[in-house]
């Protein structure tokens, strides 16, 4: 859906603005940043699975939440 795309796009734009602010203030390098979601994308295709849906019709990709970590230096 287009709405999912635009929501993800806006979230990344906002995160990049925040990262730039951290860099401008010279605190990016000594800041640990953790970005995590509570669920994955319900319709995401995952080539690791022979079938893409569970018995109740939910896509396996929905069980893969995002976890991104930037360590401080």
Question: Which key terms come to mind for this protein?
Answer:
alpha+beta
Describe the structure.
By secondary structure, the protein is an alpha+beta fold. Helices cover 32% and strands 11% of the residues. It has a two-stranded antiparallel ribbon with strand order 1-2. 0% of the residues are buried.
Q: What does the secondary structure layout of this molecule look like, with pairings?
A:
Blueprint: H1 2-24, E1 33-36, E2 67-70
Antiparallel strand pairs: 1-2
List how many beta strands DSSP finds: 2
Structural class by SSE content: alpha+beta
Overall 3D form: elongated
* Number of DSSP helical runs: 1
Give the low-pLDDT segments.
none
In short:
With 73 residues, this protein is of the alpha+beta class. The protein contains 1 helix and 2 strands.
């Amino acid at each position: 859906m287009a709405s999912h795309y635009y929501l993800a796009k806006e979230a990344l734009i906002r995160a990049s603005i925040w990262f730039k602010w951290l860099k401008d203030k010279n605190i990016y390098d000594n800041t640990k940043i953790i970005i995590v979601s509570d669920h994955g994308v319900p319709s995401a295709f995952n080539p690791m699975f022979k079938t893409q849906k569970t018995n109740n019709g939910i896509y396996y990709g929905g069980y893969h939440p995002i976890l991104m970590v930037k360590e401080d230096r």
